[in-house]
Amino acid sequence: MTLYGETRPPADDRPTVKVTAVSWPVDEPDPVAPAATAATTGTGPARRSRRLRVLLAAGVGTAVLATVGGVGAYAYAGDVPRGTTVLGTELGGRSRTDAIRELRAELERAGTPSTPLRVTVGEKSLEFAPADVGLAVDVEATVDAAAKAQAHPVSRLVGSRAVAPVVTVDAARLDAALRKAAGDQTREWTVPAIIFTGTTPKPVRPRSGLALDPQRSAQAVRDGWLSGQPVTVPLVENTPATSAEEVDKLVAELARPAVAAPVTLDTDKGSVTIPPAAIARSLRFTADDAGKLTPRVDVKRLRAALGDKLDAIETEPRDARMTVTGGKPKPVDGRPGQQLDSAALSRDLLAVLPRTDDRKVTGRLKETQPKLTTEKLAGLGIVERVSRFTTHFTGGLSSPRSQNIVQIAKDVDGTVVLPGETFSLNGHTGERGYAQGYRDAPVILDGKLVPGVGGGTSQFTTTLFNATYYAGLEDVEHKPHSYWFSRYPPVIESTIFWPNLDFKFRNNTKYGVLIDTSTTASSVTVSIWSTKIYDSVKTEYGPRRDVTKPKTIHLKPGPSCIPSNGIDGFTQDAFRVIKKDGKVVKREKFTWRYLAEPRYVCGGPTD
């Protein structure tokens, strides 16, 4: 006998499962005591009915499982759920690799990578090539997003879903292109400020700006590039956090009272009067990125404004230093100092500045350790001389030029440059004027020799440059002279002039560098001590070319006229060749064009 059972699905699109049950032989009843037999053996109609139901249920379950398993296998075929599309391209049922290949090919066929970006910024309509702003569809990320579109098995089996492409753009390049194209539609905001002219505070009131927001612009482009419509990029109004009213209030309640009277600074070692001019130089109103104005006292500026008034109270810490004794560098102990607690002084001074009376503040002295200790120096690997360079001068030590060379050599002697640090000659010596011990001597100004304070320091600069050059240290900034002088090597030389022309080098090694200077009556020498890294550093010169002859110029006689014989002009190349382990590891080219120095004659046809 054949039986048909039918499951009744709920009202959805799941398939109807039809199951066929098997028929079984009918057991004949025992002729003897059928009731007893049925009762004792568990046979008869009841037993057969139960057995039939068990077998029927087992058959239905097996068939259902088999059917559902087939449906699941169909639904989960591939990495991307069936019915999934990206920009109209069917990716469902494919493996990740196949989906990437198919989507990339379809994008190329549709010309998507070259689809122009059309944007509207304010009143301007613009168009960019995608490559100009780093705009593209990230195919792999898009397929990954498609694979995660639906995880439910029934949803994977039926229905459809469109997945948006993952679009990438270079936000910085886009912003630069939009700013250039937007033109005068944007305006910078005015940052609030309070500045002092002498002891008079001047308010700078804020003004809102209109600007592009790089992140918002990028998001708008990612969302709208492939929509077929121009993308509207918003212009955002930026308003500083501190208003004009708040700026005026700061002027009235802090800036103006701050410079109305001096402040007395009391310490355990005595008192110092801080005049209004020093307060004006040190009271700063700083705006953060949001345009919020915050007042503070800059103690470094305050110290500079007070000059030597703090000398009786503070003791500067002294760094440990290196000296060369018996042909070997040795560290010499520094010492701690005592200085005002900058953070506390800044806070306490700011608190009393709005007051009209009781303008006193207590300064606390604390021990200040030197930045460079003997222990640190000892571990820097300053153990041997790695280079030395000497230049010669005339006139003996009595000439102002020679005295300037000796003075700057003393200022630099013993300087230690730590690994990774950049040394600036101007930064190290500061202004080289009369107060610092420098004298008038000839300098080159506007192409001719004239008297000037500090003349001769360029010779020391050249000597230092060559010493660092032959030590293999990194050249950061130098400028050769306009004219070539025979006392210097061509090209490999440097001038200096406060504050515009500087000489800088960087210690690009893992060891410390000690600058050791010495002078005689006719020479200056700079030695560099460290740990030797290279086998050799040498210079190879190319031939001089484009040689020009000097012309004769007659000048008005007088103390400011310095005659000269004139020097040829020329161009030349110099190559720094650095060897290590027997091989050339670096070859650097230096080129300079020297002008022909005129022959200056004091007096003559122009008298």
TrEMBL record:
Residues 33-46 have a biased composition (Low complexity). InterPro entries: Glycopeptide_resist_protein, Vancomycin_resist_VanW, YoaR-like_PG-bd. Pfam families: PG_binding_4 (PF12229), VanW (PF04294). Residues 25-47 are annotated as: Disordered. PANTHER family: EXPORTED PROTEIN, EXPORTED PROTEIN-RELATED. The chain crosses the membrane at residues 54-77. The keyword Magnesium does not apply. Keywords: Membrane, Transmembrane, Transmembrane helix. Residues 244-361 form the YoaR-like putative peptidoglycan binding domain. This is Vanomycin resistance protein VanB. It comes from Micromonospora haikouensis.
